[in-house]
Amino acid sequence: MLELQNLPDFIKLEISKSDLLDFARVLAQELHRPSALPNPETREIVDLSEAVAITGLARPTLYTLTSRRGIPHFKRGKKLYFRRSELEAWLFTNRCKPLARSKRKPSCSGKKRRAPWTVLKFAESACP
Q1: CA-to-CA separations, 103 to 15, 34, 98, 107, 109, in angstroms, rounded
Q2: What pLDDT does residue 128 have?
Q3: Dihedral (C-alpha) 60, 61, 65, 68: value to the nearest 10 degrees?
Q4: How many CB atoms lie within 10 A of CB 47?
Q5: Are the C-beta atoms of 22 and 28 separated by less than 8 Å?
Q6: Domain containing residue 77
Q7: The pLDDT value given to residue 121
Q8: In percent, how much of the chain has pLDDT > 70?
């Protein structure tokens, strides 16, 4: 590749006005193309307001999750930042799988619910 630093000192470069204008037009066309501008939806690093939009969670909920280290994040000074890919992966970690041909609703918490009568039996047996 030819670089200006490697050229001898006695070579003189001549650029005409029309060449500069053509270059400026091409450059302006390249900058006005939609793909040349950064798209906010494709940025990998997002701030708190964009994380709210991605996750659908409220700001206080995200603050709570970050303070408990329940969601992947990092800080720069007082600002919180998130990676879009990590947020999307975090959203799918607790995904509920649908039950096949069952009338029962799927449980997302993973905890087994006790039948109401077993709770009553336990409460009655605990009393003297």
Answers
A1: 78, 49, 11, 12, 18
A2: 42
A3: 60
A4: 13
A5: no
A6: 45-91
A7: 45
A8: 60
